[in-house]
């Protein structure tokens, strides 16, 4: 490899060779830029479900029965002082009736769709639930609706808003999804109804996509601008600044081009990749530039070869270890995380190749020697004299950090990532308050014996226990199930009075069989009972409690079922998108920490081989664990929960932070002074400035992310900046102390 490298760099004197290399560089850049139109931004909740998860397998079978529970939109229309106004109701009903023209709509549920069924001498008669254009009948209609536990699901508690649930197709094509969503918003804009709120997966998803797209373009541009500014301030030379800048931008273009070719969508995680590559590539270039400026050879080719020889091995090692850190994410069975691991790791290796292949083309013969003088000797001597103090301070900080770390808990509030003044966030909160929830929640219930029916009395009596628990203890205000059909049949047989909407006695249950069968045949219960009548569900909406609280409630519900429900009659299993999102957040956060552990193991092996010393390998890991512990401690004290987008910080921080440690130890290894203190002084002189510059650039770049109103971006920027700051301080304070013997 060395022979090939020497031959390659020897050709740099040849103009034709340099021209050919320039041509390859520019043509390849043009090709990859041409692929950019294929890049797209997406955010699908379902993609974060673990592929081999048993809950997901069960959910997919459940979907075959009832469809995706998240394929809905809720439209809340407001009217003061009451929605029971003929003019208002007429406008809303007219709008609802025009929805049939929108491609992708499956059905709607509202007070306009429901019928009040009563038993008459001529059979069962269906009466409109609401007479929107008849003010004389509207008063009695409103009394019936508000007093009925099923009908009132569609009216707020203060009767100032009503809700229409829109069930749509499960869109596999994002373009079709966007067309449907825009058509619906267009129809609302044309409805002449001013006060309305729109919530659901498509709304939240589109809001996340808009923030991801905005943050990606804004902060990537700002990152490049800050890199230029800081490099100019540090080097005070346009020519020197140009090399790190062009190498980082080129590496980024190559990576984004590859992502475009493979049609990788930019998600809430993959938008991390560009800044990572931007900063890592800049770091590689800075080490090369500084090595060249420190080299005192007069002949250009010898100076170039000597500089490359000095930093090639440490930079290759840092690239391999950082890439391995990201590749460790492949063990997680979730597509967005695997994509982050693959392309971040690939980007790091691309950055290495670009820097050493094209970087030397930009190095000018007349680069001045390094002019920045830092008090390396004074700093090293102070550390040597205060070794015990340094160790004591770090031990104290570690103890405090552990205390903070123990306060960390896994939790996620999806909508809290949106800005506080976000209309989408406010709309979801309004529905949680006015209608008892905006997030779908469901539980599958089925007979323990395959031959039994979900409509048998003994099965439904067990299900009734669960319903009471859901309403009295769990916190679901409105829930549909096979019990709703039974109660409705009882109401019909008892003359249609609202107070008769209740579970009947056994004799009445037997007498009402024909009514229930009629309801089932007419599809009234198709949303809660499957066609075989051997599988059913509880379906309702819950507020945004947060994943931790929701999981606690789910655990309590499972304990109740184990304790109170006869498992020889009824089996139950919580399922649905909300359940999978909450559970995936908890499991993936912990799995990411396992991925970090795997990264540590792989990197340890590489470092042990490189340094040929178990002791040096341990010394190299300690300065990279401590910043992670400090960061976790601060997260704990701040009450920031551990979730997917905060847990990923530790993997990214470790992957980047280990670079400076390796460069420091690589320089230390090459020093020939016998005294440890002089080896440290020479190491500071050799690698200290490059470490400082790269750290300032990385911290400055990630600090920009804290300007975002999108909480996910803010926390990523804030905690990555902190971790990088702790990492460079530990490399310059604790690491030399550990090396001093």
TrEMBL record:
Any one annotated GO CC term:
plasma membrane
Record localization: Cell membrane
Q: Which PROSITE patterns match?
A: SSD (PS50156)
Q: What is the lineage of its organism?
A: Bacteria, Pseudomonadati, Bacteroidota, Cytophagia, Cytophagales
**What name does the UniProt record give this protein?**
SSD domain-containing protein
Give the transmembrane region(s). 216-235, 242-262, 268-290, 311-334, 340-363, 389-408, 592-611, 618-638, 644-668, 689-710, 716-739
For membrane topology, the record states:
Multi-pass membrane protein
Q: What InterPro entries has UniProt attached to this entry?
A: MMPL_dom (IPR004869), Mycobact_MmpL (IPR050545), SSD (IPR000731)
Query: Entry's PANTHER family?
Result: BLR2997 PROTEIN (PTHR33406:SF12), MEMBRANE PROTEIN MJ1562-RELATED (PTHR33406)
Q: Does the keyword Membrane apply?
A: yes
Q: Which Pfam families does this entry report, sorted A to Z?
A: MMPL
What is the organism of origin for this protein?
Marivirga sericea
Residue ranges annotated for the SSD domain, each copy included: 245-365, 616-741
Q: Which UniProt keywords apply?
A: Cell membrane, Membrane, Transmembrane, Transmembrane helix
């Amino acid at each position: 490899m060395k022979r090939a490298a020497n031959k390659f760099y020897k050709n740099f004197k040849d103009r034709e060779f340099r021209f050919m290399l320039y041509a390859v560089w520019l043509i390849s850049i043009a090709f990859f830029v041409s692929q950019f139109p294929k890049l797209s931004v997406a955010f699908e909740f379902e993609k974060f479900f673990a592929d081999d998860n048993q809950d997901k397998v069960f959910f997919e079978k459940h979907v075959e029965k009832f469809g995706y529970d998240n394929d809905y939109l809720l439209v809340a229309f407001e009217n003061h002082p009451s929605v029971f106004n003929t003019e208002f109701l007429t406008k809303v009903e007219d709008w609802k009736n025009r929805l049939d023209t929108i491609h992708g709509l499956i059905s709607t549920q509202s007070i306009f769709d429901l019928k009040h069924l009563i038993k008459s001498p001529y059979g069962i008669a269906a009466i409109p639930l609401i007479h929107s254009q008849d003010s004389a009948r509207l008063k009695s209609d409103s009394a019936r609706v508000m007093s009925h536990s099923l009908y009132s699901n569609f009216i707020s508690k203060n009767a100032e808003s009503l809700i229409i649930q829109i069930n749509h197709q499960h869109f596999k094509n994002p373009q079709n999804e966007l067309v449907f969503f825009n058509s619906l918003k267009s129809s609302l804009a044309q409805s002449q109804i001013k006060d309305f709120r729109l919530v659901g997966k498509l709304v939240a998803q589109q809001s996340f996509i808009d923030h991801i797209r905005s943050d990606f373009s804004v902060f990537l541009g700002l990152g490049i601008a800050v890199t230029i500014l800081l490099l100019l301030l540090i080097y005070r030379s346009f020519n020197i600044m140009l090399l790190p800048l062009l190498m980082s931008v080129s590496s980024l273009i190559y990576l984004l081009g590859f992502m475009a070719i493979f049609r990788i969508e930019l998600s809430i995680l993959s938008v991390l990749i560009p800044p990572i590559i931007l900063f890592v590539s800049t770091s590689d270039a800075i080490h090369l530039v500084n090595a060249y400026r420190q080299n005192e050879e007069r002949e250009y080719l010898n100076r170039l070869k000597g500089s490359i020889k000095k930093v090639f091995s440490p930079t290759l090692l840092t690239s391999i270890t950082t890439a391995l850190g990201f590749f460790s994410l492949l063990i997680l069975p979730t597509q967005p995380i695997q994509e982050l691991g693959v392309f971040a790791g690939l980007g790091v290796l691309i950055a290495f190749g670009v820097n050493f292949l094209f970087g030397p083309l930009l190095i000018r013969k007349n680069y001045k020697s390094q002019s920045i003088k830092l008090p390396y000797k004074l700093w090293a001597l102070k550390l040597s004299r205060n070794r015990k103090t340094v160790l004591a301070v770090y031990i104290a900080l570690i103890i405090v950090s552990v205390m903070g770390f123990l306060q960390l808990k896994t939790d996620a509030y999806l909508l809290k990532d949106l800005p506080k003044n976000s209309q989408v966030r406010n709309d979801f909160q309004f529905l949680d308050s006015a209608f008892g929830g905006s997030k779908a929640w469901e539980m599958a219930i089925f007979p323990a014996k395959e031959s039994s029916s979900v409509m048998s009395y003994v099965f439904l009596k067990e299900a009734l226990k669960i319903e009471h628990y859901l309403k009295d203890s769990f916190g679901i205000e409105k829930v549909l199930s096979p019990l709703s059909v039974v109660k409705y049949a009882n109401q019909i047989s008892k003359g249609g009075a609202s107070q008769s909407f209740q579970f009947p006695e056994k004799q009445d249950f037997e007498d009402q069989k024909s009514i229930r069968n009629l309801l089932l045949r007419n599809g009234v219960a198709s949303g809660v009972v499957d066609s075989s009548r051997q599988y059913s569900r509880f379906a309702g909406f819950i507020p945004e409690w947060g994943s931790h609280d929701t999981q606690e409630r789910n655990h309590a519900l499972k304990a109740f079922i184990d304790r109170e429900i006869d498992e020889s009659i009824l089996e139950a299993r919580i399922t649905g998108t909300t359940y999978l999102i909450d559970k995936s957040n908890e499991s993936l956060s912990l799995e990411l920490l396992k991925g970090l552990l795997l990264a540590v193991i792989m990197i340890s092996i590489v470092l042990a081989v490189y340094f040929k010393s178990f002791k040096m390998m341990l010394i190299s890991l300690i300065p990279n664990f401590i910043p992670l512990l400090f960061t976790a401690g601060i997260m704990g004290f701040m009450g920031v929960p551990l979730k997917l987008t905060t847990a990923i910080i530790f993997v990214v921080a470790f992957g980047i932070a280990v670079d400076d440690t390796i460069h420091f130890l690589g320089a230390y290894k090459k020093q020939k002074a016998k005294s440890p203190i002089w080896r440290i002084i020479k190491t500071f002189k050799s690698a200290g400035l490059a470490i400082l510059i790269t750290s300032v650039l990385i911290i400055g770049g990630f600090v920009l992310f804290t300007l975002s109103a999108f909480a996910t971006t803010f926390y990523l920027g804030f905690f990555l900046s902190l971790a990088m700051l702790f990492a460079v301080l530990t490399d310059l304070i604790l690491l030399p102390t550990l090396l001093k013997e």
